[in-house]
Each structure stands twice: as structure tokens, then as C-alpha cells.
Design goal:
With about 300 residues, the protein is an alpha+beta fold. It is about 65% helix and about 10% strand.
Length: about 300
């Protein structure tokens, strides 16, 4: 049998040598892929950081440009702080309990270092944002403005105001959205039950049934408004015991209390009151009392011109 020449590979050795070279090529490809991936990720991070910085620079320059560059911008910030401090001093004299409650909320949620002057508007904007998430519109308008009627079902002035349709008509005339929220006054008999009845209609049958219930209660005579609430529920097929269970449920209690809390933080203490809200900016104005449509439209116009009143 012939002897293989020196330095020649056996078939087995050749296969092993080919496998080794193949493994080296595969490893090289993997290393190259990993390196490329790392470069891409790093470049994306750097690009994102640069983009954020560019965006911040453009934003600052835009704000400066609106008021004649940095010196004027800083001056206006100082004026705004002075106005805020002055407003809060007046507010504390007029409504000390309200300001005390706001301070406690800021301390509880923002920590000991937070100040009333720095956090007051931020807190109110958060309340406005929370309010928007709980609105069930009777209809939605074509602008960023919303008109929210806060009222008490057991209040004579509220009934007169609601039946007049001033808030809803003003909303339609300015292309705004319209919503209604009941505010409970425990001094008025039936106030709590009627608000709960409306909320049950909302939970069980939706916003359409909610607004039908609102209209039925306000359209009834004072002595029969509770019966009207029952009638609205029963005609939809819910029996009396189930309706009463809903009225007393924890879910309904939470909804009614949330409306009351929102009204309190937005300084809506009297009913009826109309909140005019710019949903885009969070600015708002409040019109209190049994006013006519013109007063609501004027307040909305002032809101657009002045950036809103708190």
C-alpha cells in the first residue's frame, strides 16, 4: 500500500482544518455584526441627545423671540412671579381655608421643599387635566373650548339656570363642547340622591341616559324630582332594588365625591357655575350664578384674549 507523502493531510485532518477555518469566518462575521450594532445604537443615542438639545435650544429661542429676547423674557418671568405672589396673598385673605388645603396637598404630594408660589398653578393644571378625563360630553364642539355646567339638582336657581339653556346655548354658539356635572349640597334635601341617580344612569346605560336623566330631574317640579329620577331608571328596565343598590354603591359614591373635589380645587363653591376651559392650554375661567348666555360668551372671549383667569 502506498505511503502518503510527508506533510500531506489525511482526509480526517483536512475536514477538521476546513471546519476550523469555517468557524473562524463565522466568528468574524458575528464580531462584525456585534460591532455594527453597537455603532448604530451609540449613534442613535448621540443623535437623540443632540436632537433633544437642538429642540430645547429652538424652544428657548422661540420663547425669547416672542418677547424681544432673553432680558425681556426674564423680566416677564419676574412680573409673573410677583403677580402670582400678589394673587395668592389676596386669595389667602379671602379664602384662608382653601389656600390652607392647597398648601397641605402640595406638601403631601410635592415634599417639604415645594412652595405654594411655585406649585400652585401646576397643581391647578393637574386638576384641570383630571377634570377632562371625567367629562362625558353631551356633544363635542369644533374648537378646543369646553363649557362645563356645575349645578345642584335641588337648587331653585340651578333649575332656573339649566332650564334657560344659557350654558349649552353659549357652547353651541362658540363651537365648544358641553358637559354637565352635578355638585352635591347636603343642606339641600334630595341633592345627594339626585346626583347619585344621574351617575347611576351614566354607569348603567351610558352618557345618553345620563343626560336624559339630568333633563328629567330639572324639568320636574321640586316635589317630584326624586320620582322623576326613579321613573328614568325604571323605564330602562332596571328594578327598584337594583337602582337603589347602585345609588348607594361605593362606585357611585366615588364619582359624586370626585365631582365635588374637582369643583373645590377649581374654586367652584356656588351653584350654578359655568367652567369655560381651554383644553389645549389648561387655562380656564369660571362664571358664577344664574347668568345669561352673554355673560358666558364674554368670559370665554376674555379667556382667549388674556390667557385665562384662575
Amino acid at each position: 500500500m502506498p505511503t502518503p507523502p510527508e506533510n500531506s493531510e489525511t482526509p480526517t485532518e483536512k475536514i477538521e482544518s476546513d471546519d476550523f477555518r469555517a468557524d473562524k469566518r463565522v466568528n468574524s462575521v458575528i464580531v462584525a455584526i456585534v460591532c455594527c450594532t453597537a455603532v448604530i445604537i451609540a449613534s442613535q443615542f448621540v443623535f437623540a441627545e443632540l436632537s433633544k438639545r437642538d429642540f430645547h435650544r429652538i424652544l428657548v429661542e422661540t420663547e425669547y423671540g416672542k418677547v424681544g429676547w432673553e432680558a425681556n423674557y426674564r423680566l416677564l418671568q419676574e412680573i409673573q412671579r410677583d403677580r402670582t405672589a400678589s394673587y395668592l396673598r389676596d386669595l389667602e385673605e379671602q379664602e384662608p381655608d382653601y389656600v390652607r388645603g392647597i398648601k397641605k396637598k402640595i406638601e403631601r404630594e410635592r415634599g417639604d421643599g415645594a412652595t405654594l408660589e411655585n406649585e400652585f398653578w401646576n397643581l391647578l393644571k393637574e386638576e384641570v387635566s383630571a377634570l377632562k378625563s371625567t367629562l362625558f360630553y353631551k356633544y363635542e364642539g369644533t374648537t378646543e373650548i369646553s363649557v362645563v355646567e356645575f349645578s345642584d339638582f335641588a337648587c331653585d336657581y340651578c333649575q332656573t339656570f339649566h332650564v334657560s339653556g344659557a350654558a349649552e346655548s353659549a357652547a353651541k354658539n362658540m363651537g365648544a363642547s358641553y358637559a354637565f356635572k352635578p355638585l352635591v349640597n347636603l343642606k339641600n334635601e334630595g341633592s345627594d340622591f339626585l346626583a347619585r341617580s344621574a351617575k347611576c344612569a351614566l354607569q348603567k346605560f351610558g352618557s345618553g341616559a345620563y343626560y336624559e336623566t339630568v333633563e328629567a330631574i330639572f324639568s320636574a317640579e321640586e316635589w317630584s324630582n326624586v320620582e322623576a329620577a326613579y321613573a328614568e331608571a325604571l323605564k330602562r328596565g332596571i328594578d327598584k332594588s337594583a337602582f337603589e343598590a347602585c345609588v348607594q354603591s361605593d362606585e357611585t359614591t366615588a364619582l359624586v365625591e370626585k365631582d365635588f373635589g374637582q369643583g373645590n380645587y377649581l374654586k367652584i363653591r356656588a351653584t350654578p357655575s359655568v367652567l369655560i376651559l381651554n383644553e389645549k392650554t389648561g387655562e380656564y375661567a369660571v362664571v358664577k350664578g344664574d347668568v345669561d348666555e352673554t355673560a358666558i360668551l364674554e368670559a370665554a372671549s376674555a379667556l382667549k384674549e388674556n390667557g385665562g383667569s384662575k
